[in-house]
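FIELD: query
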Amino acid sequence: MSFKRDPLALAVGVLLCAGISQVASAQETATPADEAATTLDSVRVTGSHIKGLQLSGVGPVTVIDAEAIQRSGATTIDTLLQRLPSSAGFSGNQTNAYWAENGYGTTQVNLRGLGINRTLVLLNGRRIVNGGTGANSSPDLNMIPVALIERVEVLKDGASAIYGADAVAGVVNIITKKNYEGAEVAVRYGQTFEQDGEDGAVDLVWGMRGERGSLIAGLNYSESGSVNMATRAPCGLGEVDGQLECVGSSTTIGGRALLADGSRVNFNQVLGGDGDFYEPYSAAKHNYNGNPSLNAVNPIKRVSFSLFGDTSLSDRARLFTELMYTNRQSDQLATPGGLGVYRAINIAADHPTNPTGQDLLLQRRRLEEAGTRKFFQETNTFRTVVGLDGLLGDNWDWSVALNWGRNTGVDGSTNVANLDRVDQTLDTSVCSNAPGAAIPCGDYLGYGDLSQAVLDYILFDTRDHGGNDQKSFTGNISGQLVELPAGWLGFASGIEVRKERGWRDPDPLTVLGIANTNQQDPIAGEYTAKEAFVEFNVPLLQDSAIAESLTLNTAVRYSDYDLFGNDTNYKVGLDWQIVPSLKVRANYATAFRIPNIPELFGGIAEGNLTTTDPCSGWSSLPADSVVFQNCQAYGVPAGYVQPGNTILTTAGGNPELEPEDAESVTVGAVWTPGFVEGLTLTVDYFDIRIDNAIQRIDGSTKLAICYDTPGLAHPFCGADNFTRNPITGEVDFLSSQPVNAANEWVTGVDIGGIYEFAWAGFQSSVSFDATYLDRYDVRPYPGAEIIEYAGKITGGRGSYTHWRAFTSFTMARDAWSGSYSLQYIGKADDINANPGDIGDHAPSVTYHNVQVKYAPPQASFDVAFGIDNLFDKKPPFIQSYTDANTDTMTYDLLGVRWYARFGYRW
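FIELD: result
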């Protein structure tokens, strides 16, 4: 997208001046009686800057209140957000085990599956600094303590005209508690029925309020334990001769090598065995089971301190502030590192450690003698907001605020090999076998042959530093401009100036490519945004023959970015109350997203990513199949079998990226039938189209499309996408760097309902929220075939089932209350699997959760007990995933688990 210069800024300025002039006029005519009737606590609905107008037509909004949060038993807000049917695709979750834009241990939300960087997250209506270990693309939800949340409003509609860039899929606005008085301490603890995965939290909230202001403070500590992956999935599974068998990794503990005559051998794998023993390599016999060296759930600790306050400066103005600080410590267990992944190791025939008599290429050798690795992170995030707000006249309010957020992180890995030192231990001209030698000689051919001296010499711990910084100024004004025949014309306008900065400095040896880990370049970048908006709420009809009311909602936002120029986005919506029981709403909006700092300035990085090679076993396919013919034409050796489940993949940033453009349409209805008291039903159709989309196509998909295209005619078959080793046939280069080439199109329907009723003396309610994802089509570049994600589980983007739903049934009477909820995830097909393969599809799954609470009305305490995944539903086997043999971003790995909570107030 190219930003075009236009005169909108002048128009916005004129409108702002007009609004201020109108406010000044209203202020002059205000009377003491008018002032007494106003309040500073007017309502702002997520999706509009116009306060005081109950704009239920701004778009479909899901509200999760404090009671629902407590009923869930969740200690982090991401748990709740990821249960929403409108969530899909890839985002950080309970495993904390994925490198999500430089953010091990971070948690995010992904509305519509469009990506975590296309969902805008706000705190009390203002942006939050990105979080993680440096140069990140979205906020870390770990920083927001659940105990201080009053409610979460999720707007499932494009809202760039209201909030600016990134609000392509929607907005998550987290609202904290206000006017809290008293104190409360709450203790929560839980674990799985396997007696692991401990999860505990202690929350202290204190607040006071008086005639001139209020203050609320919170101190929060939470800690979760680990769950070893082998306890849930004893080994990595794959289909062999129509049966699921342990397949493991081809990075063996003895060492897998390619000899000069083209044969593959594997060296001794028995500790204390014959150090010169080798035999033909066999995947079934020699591959490594890494699951005991991995966690299904990794430990994480969080400490947060928060302070929110306000004080009246006059009857019509107040000062407010928000202070937040969070420290997060997390780590992930990892298998011992493997040599040969990032640098070739050639050992001559006459080398003293080589018993084969041939020159050899040591393709993979796992450093089992060194033990497991540990990835670790520690982040510190703080946020400060200071502002003023107040009233002008009868119908106007205003606010100005300064917002500064900063996140810094340190992360790294233990037991990483220095590849230069590995080379030195193989160079007999510089190494020595003498005790205490400065450079000891190493024998990498055979398990147990590496001495402790060699391990001490080659191994070190990496340490990386990074962070994110956000500074912004916002000023808003809203009110009623003029009274029209159908009601008051609502108006809001404002400006925002925001500077975003991100940086990441990997360990020097990682930058140089010496460390036996993903090579990374430093990241450093920043941009400045200057924006202004106007918004109108125009009543068109009131109490007419065709409508109880008809209201037009419009907004225009002008954005100027120092890196990209300027852009204009707008929104037009109608809110039609046909009769008291039926409302129809429709919105059309344009949106945009600028490339984030890691996408722009991310340099080049490499990593071993889970990838399916379609040429694995190609020679056993029918000779007339496209895959057979293409793999043969490409020169892949007959009988080739992919040696492992990962391929070294080039990723990183692209400084040539441009912003994305998007359009969204939502049309819906709200029905409250008079013949069923307490029932409300909603339905909303959504259609989101993104042009010039920034896209990373995962390696499995590139390879699958290439080899399924007759004559290898697809552009994905080009050497800029992947290459193969001419001898072994293995993929030795695969690229997934982002480009501005894609178009994305998402359509579907949201269905919701709530029924409140009395039954057997209980106040009861049933709520239902479901999303049907009709299509998610990606055209990776102009002229390409469309990749259909809807109804599919992908190799790197997560799951896009057609149906997702969440239903909750609650009951309350006197001191007792309880809830029963069901989370439904529909069936899906594996996009990378062949039909008929084991794991080519996943069946539908329903998780049952139950909680009971005792809170005597006159007492100062409450007790709650709950069980999640009540019937111990196991995750399905997914072929494209190897971590615990399933899609860990979608399905529950922990099994049945319990928790208890005790709260005391005074």
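FIELD: remark
The domain at 8-28+30-230+297-334+376-414+464-603+653-698+736-905 is CATH 2.40.170.20 (Maltoporin; Chain A).
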